[in-house]
Every structure is written in C-alpha cells, then in structure tokens.
Design brief:
binds flavin-adenine dinucleotide; 414 residues; single chain
C-alpha cells in the first residue's frame, strides 16, 4: 500500500534530500505520496552505477518497491535453492529456498524512474545546514542554498549530513573485507554454468566465506547467456593489513578503500594465487573470469538516535550493517516509508520526527547487531561467550545457509 493520500488543506511542505541512491529515491517517492515537495541532491555529476554489485531481495524490499511506485517488474533472477559445496565442488548440503536476486543497477533504475527530472539534481554536494527550530537552510558546494521544512540525510555510510549533526558517530572496521566481482555468464565454463550458476552457492574455507548467485547482465539483461554471476569472497585482515592494502597502484594511501582500477597488481596476483590454492574448480573459474575484481572493506556503525532537530537520517547514513543479511536496501525503503508515514500521521513535524526516531532507530540497531552475530563466522574479535558460541555454530554449512541472507530474519526480534 502507498504511504498515504495527500491532505488538500495543508500547505505544501518541503524536504531537501541528500543522496540520490536507494534511500534518497525511496524518500522522495514516499514523500510525494503524502503531498510533500521533495528534492534530491546527489554529488555525482553523472547517473549512478553499481559496478555490477548483486543484491539479495527480501519481502520488505519487494513491499517497499511496490508501495513506492517503482514496482518489481523484471526485478531479477529467481533461484530455486541454496547449496554448500566442498573443495572439489561437490554438494555438501542444500536447502530449497526460492529467492529473487537482483542487482544494484536494476534497483537504481527502477527507483530513478519514479522521480521527475525537475526534482533530481545531479552534481550538487551537500556542505552544511543551519536549522532554527522551524526549518533548515541547506548549503551546497558551488554556492547553491535551499530552504526546507526538513533535511533528510540519505548520503550513505560516510554521510556528510551525519558528520555535521553527530560527528562522533564513525563507521567501525569489522576486521574483514571482501573481494568481489561479477563474471559474465557467457564466459564461464560449461561445468560452472551447469553445476552452480542457477543457484545461491556457499563455500566455507576456514575463516573465509564465498557466496555466489546469478544477477542480470549489463543493461539489466535477464536473457540466458547475457547474465552475470555475483561473486563475494570474505577474508580476514586486521586494520594494519587493510591500511597496507589501501595503498594504490601509484603508491597513494586511501582512507577507506581503493577505486577498482587503482587496486595494486600485486594484491590481485596474490588473490589469484590464494584462489588457486583453496577454490573448487567451478569457483576458480569465476575468479579468473572476473574482469576487474575489487575490494570492499566491511564497516558498520549504529546510532543512539537518527533524528537531530529537523534533520532525519535514513538508510546507511542512519545505521549501517555488515552485508551478511543483504538487507541494506530493504532497510533504506523501510526507513523512508516510516518517515513519510510519521509525517502523514502527525500534523506537527517535530512530533512526526520523534515518532520516526522511536520506530526506526531500534530497528536499525537490531539489524546492525544481527549482522555482527553473523560476522562471528570469520572468527574476528570474539569478545563474549555468545560471540564464541555463534562462531562455533556458524562453522557448519547448514547453519550458514539457515542464517545468511535469509528472508524474515527480523521476525525473531518482534
Ligand atoms: C558488499 C556489499 C553487499 C551488499 N549486499 C546487499 C544486498 O544483497 N542486499 C541489500 O539490500 N543491500 C546490500 N548491500 C547494502 C546496500 O548496498 C546499501 O544498504 C544501500 O546502497 C544503501 O543505500 P543508501 O541510499 O542509504 O546509501 P548509498 O547507496 O551509499 O548512497 C549514498 C549516496 O549519497 C551520495 N552522497 C554522499 N555524500 C554526499 C554529499 N555530501 N552530497 C550529495 N550526495 C552525497 C553518494 O554519492 C551516494 O550516491 C550491500 C553492501 C555491500 C557493501
């Protein structure tokens, strides 16, 4: 169900939304439904693309896409089951589980189509905001200034908006990172295509986790032969090792991660060598077929509140979980939908923002804590008895298949 019908008597209220990705677009769609004017400002001067990243879907995401007007037509590829394989590529265990796997690009395209060009502004970087209790004044790089009733921070895990209202909240490195990429279906071997391509696959060498599943090809091509295979390989590295990995091909030190084309050749060569040591042939085929493997260090953080006066945080900017549940976009949709519903249900904006904070801050916190539980599989920073118990439990293939990226995991917390 859409969030609401607009009230004909209320003066048109306005939101400035920072970030033109998932949460920003969801927020604009849901606010428009309650009669607000909503403008999205994205720092990228060109349309966003997701480097072929795969996205697991959840019932909450499908519901948010339908309610927002983006819809779910040709969303992705449905797998019939998940399975765990051994070093030879033989099936060790399996679970029937129908799940739609999509890609970041497909979601971005669907959501992007919901917004009128006049309200989507590329090439504007948020710098700072002032608020006086009744509204916000928003300043952008380049001198642009916008006034609004509320400012929405949908600008991701390293949010500049959050940096202004809560600079103490910083993402924390989890102690592990992933190599990832998306080889083309057409270039994979016949064996890989037959044995693993149609499925959600897990492979668990000690203190590592490999996850693969099919996604759409370039331009969201879902035709057999034109799709890609999402490949994710979790590996452990402490902060000092990560810092060393964040030195690029030209010797430049990066703070968080190195852009894919600049990843050092020696790191890529070592990754290939390690893959040859431990991967089953079907997964090694994926590794050597990837065009430009890239590294994503895993960070997370949670926030004691997500509303700061007339500034509301949503999506990864509000709370960022490790990606073990594949729930980030579902959360972005849920945050945006809840924010619009609160603004619809409370005439007073400040009361509405408080209600939004009360509803979504605990959910964000729960999601982050759950992701830390799943991360214990990798055996990093096991601080409590519970961490150690989860670590032992998650060494089992069946347990991993029952916990990682499964639908309805939040039900256990309701
Ligand atoms: C390895 C990995 C796997 C994942 N797998 C899944 C999955 O399977 N399923 C799933 O649902 N989620 C998954 N996620 C999470 C998902 O990608 C994120 O939760 C989602 O992209 C968050 O959307 P967002 O709009 O909140 O933030 P982002 O997508 O980070 O977008 C923030 C936007 O804000 C812009 N911006 C930043 N600063 C400024 C500024 N100062 N001014 C203007 N614009 C600015 C940025 O350019 C960017 O476009 C995964 C994440 C990772 C790292």
């Amino acid at each position: 169900m859409p969030v609401a019908a607009p009230s004909p008597t209320r003066r048109k209220r306005r939101a400035v939304i920072i970030g033109g990705s998932m949460s920003g677009l969801f927020a604009a769609a849901f606010l428009r439904q309650i009669g607000w004017e909503a403008d999205v400002y994205e720092r990228s001067p060109v349309e966003l693309v997701g480097r072929g990243a795969g996205i697991t879907t959840h019932p909450e995401l499908l519901a948010a896409l339908e309610a927002s007007g983006a819809g779910t037509v040709d969303l992705g590829i449905e797998v019939p089951k998940r399975m765990a394989i051994d070093r030879q590529g033989r099936i060790k265990d399996e679970r029937p589980l129908r799940q739609i796997l999509t890609s970041w690009d497909r979601l971005q395209r669907l959501l992007r189509e919901t917004i009128d060009e006049a309200h989507y502004h590329l090439g504007w970087t948020f710098e700072r905001a002032e608020q006086d209790g009744s509204g916000v004044r928003v300043y952008f790089n380049g001198g642009r200034v916008e006034n609004a009733d509320i400012l929405i921070g949908g600008d991701g895990v390293r949010s500049t908006v959050r940096g202004q209202v809560a600079p103490e909240l910083q993402p924390i490195y989890a102690g592990y990172y992933i190599w990832r990429g998306a080889p083309n279906e057409a270039e994979l071997s016949a064996r890989t295509l037959k044995e693993i391509f149609p499925y959600f696959v897990f492979y668990l060498p000690p203190r590592q986790e490999v996850i693969t599943y099919p996604i759409a090809g370039f331009n969201n091509d879902l035709r057999p032969g034109h799709r890609r295979y999402n490949f994710i390989w979790y590996r452990v590295a402490d902060a000092a090792q990560l810092r060393e990995m964040n030195v690029d091909e030209n010797g430049v030190q990066h703070d968080y991660s190195v852009p894919p084309p600049l990843i050092r050749k020696d790191l890529v060569a070592q990754m290939y060598a390690d893959a040859r040591e431990i991967m089953p042939p079907v997964l090694l085929d994926c590794v050597v077929t990837m065009k430009q493997p890239f590294i994503t260090p895993i960070y997370d953080f949670t926030a004691p509140r997500i509303v700061f006066g007339r500034v509301a945080m949503i999506g990864d900017a509000a709370a960022n979980a490790r990606p073990h549940m594949g729930f980030g976009v579902a959360k972005a949709g849920g945050d945006a939908q809840a924010l619009a519903a609160a603004l619809r249900d409370h005439g007073d904006i400040d009361t509405a923002l408080k209600a939004y904070n009360s509803e979504r801050q605990p959910i964000g916190n729960t999601i982050v804590m759950h992701s830390r539980k799943l991360g214990t599989h990798l055996g990093v920073n096991l601080r409590t008895e519970e961490d150690r118990r989860m670590h032992v439990l998650l060494q089992d293939d069946g347990a991993i298949m029952d916990w990682i990226a499964v639908p309805n995991f939040l039900d256990a917390y309701r």
